[in-house]
């Protein structure tokens, strides 16, 4: 039998404790091992031994006995950076490296008076990671704003910025947004890893009949396809999967995005540059001079972009884009105020898809439910 430390999985840090899933009743060695390696108090949650072992393997891709070593890299670094009063450069690097490894979509820097809380959004749920002192917070916020080309002297107005970096070996675009609160500036960092995602529509979880419909309409010679849903619902993945259905050798495919998240070989991809006055609308009108067959517009954000997209679709181009609405029925109420006439919408709009991401069930704690229980819960 292996040492008990090989039968547990660190889940997340909460203040001075480490919430840990254990696979057997030998909790004393686990508590001792966690405290010795991390300096944190172990908050243990009991799980079935076999499921915990499988979860460790799937999470770390390594023998269970190596969990503590990886934990030291991903979690303890954050505490060490604060305790040693290292530069904000080192602290930010540790935070973002841990975030990328945990597939975090957003990092929240949230001041609360006595300290500042760092939270990660994982699978749609915010999780507390660490609390940092206020003197460290000020330097960290200033460094993030400077890196994102924001005005560090301006602390009265909200600001937006972005930058590119390679984090934990992954090229990432970091979007930064600031907001003034009564405890100081609050930041949210959205992490957008760049990838060569080669998935097709059939790989994204759609029903077969939906894949068939999308495939047919996304290969039409002209018209407009809108993918809708809230932020972070997978709209870009669906759009790019649709692009891969095009005959990229025979058709001229151009995209304008903010930023380029997924690289598509064979397509001409460009990014907006607000500081240079190059936004979605201007980019789209310029693209029409480049003999396009298919145009992907990352998002319909304003009147100019919406009008230009429908103009392009009405002149013989296939346009794929996204719109932030919560339902299919909300599309008209967004497009008409943008200046797009209902008749133009009716003549050009091929498809509106509204989608959400569904959280996966935990392999360790999922339980079967009878259909009547599911119906009762709605």
UniProtKB/TrEMBL annotation:
Keyword Nucleotide-binding set for record: yes
Keyword ATP-binding: yes
Keywords for the protein's UniProt record, in alphabetical order: ATP-binding, Nucleotide-binding
UniProt domain Bacterial type II secretion system protein E: residue ranges: 288-302
Top-level taxon: Bacteria
A GO-annotated cellular component: plasma membrane
Gene Ontology MF annotations: ATP binding; ATP hydrolysis activity
SUPFAM superfamilies: P-loop containing nucleoside triphosphate hydrolases
PANTHER family: PROTEIN TRANSPORT PROTEIN HOFB HOMOLOG (PTHR30258:SF1), TYPE II SECRETION SYSTEM PROTEIN GSPE-RELATED (PTHR30258)
Assigned protein family: Belongs to the GSP E family.
The protein, known as: Type II/IV secretion system protein
């Amino acid at each position: 039998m292996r040492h008990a430390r090989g039968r547990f999985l660190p889940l997340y840090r909460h203040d001075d404790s480490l919430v840990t899933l254990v696979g057997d009743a030998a909790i004393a060695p686990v508590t001792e091992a966690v405290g010795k390696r991390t300096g944190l108090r172990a908050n243990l949650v009991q799980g079935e031994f076999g499921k915990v072992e499988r979860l460790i393997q799937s999470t770390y891709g390594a023998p269970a006995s190596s969990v503590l070593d990886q934990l030291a890299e991903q979690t303890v670094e954050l505490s060490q950076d604060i305790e040693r009063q290292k530069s904000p450069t080192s602290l930010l690097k540790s935070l973002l490296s841990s975030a990328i490894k945990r597939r975090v979509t957003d990092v929240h820097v949230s001041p609360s008076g006595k300290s500042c809380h760092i939270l990660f959004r994982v699978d749609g749920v915010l999780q507390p990671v660490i609390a940092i002192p206020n003197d460290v917070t000020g330097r960290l916020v200033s460094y993030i704003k400077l890196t994102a080309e924001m005005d560090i002297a301006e602390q009265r107005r909200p600001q937006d910025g972005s930058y590119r970096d390679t984090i934990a070996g992954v090229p990432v675009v970091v979007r930064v947004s600031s907001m003034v609160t009564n405890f100081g500036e609050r930041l949210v960092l959205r992490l957008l890893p760049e990838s060569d995602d080669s998935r097709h529509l059939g790989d994204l979880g759609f029903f077969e009949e939906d894949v068939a419909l999308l495939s047919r309409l996304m290969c039409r010679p002209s018209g407009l396809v809108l993918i809708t849903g809230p932020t972070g619902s997978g709209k870009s993945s669906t759009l790019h999967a649709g692009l891969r259905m095009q005959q990229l050798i025979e058709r001229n495919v151009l995209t304008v995005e903010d930023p380029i998240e997924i690289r598509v070989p064979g397509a001409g991809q460009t990014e907006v540059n607000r500081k240079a006055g190059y936004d979605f609308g201007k980019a789209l009108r310029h693209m029409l001079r480049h003999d396009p067959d298919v145009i992907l517009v990352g998002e319909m954000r304003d009147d100019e972009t919406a009008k230009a997209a429908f103009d392009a679709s009405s002149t013989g181009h296939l346009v794929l884009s996204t719109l932030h609405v919560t339902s299919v029925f909300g599309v008209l109420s967004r497009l008409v105020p943008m200046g797009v006439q209902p008749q133009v919408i009716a003549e050009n709009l091929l498809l509106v898809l509204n989608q959400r991401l569904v959280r996966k069930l935990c392999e360790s704690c999922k339980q079967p439910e009878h259909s009547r229980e599911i119906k009762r819960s709605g």
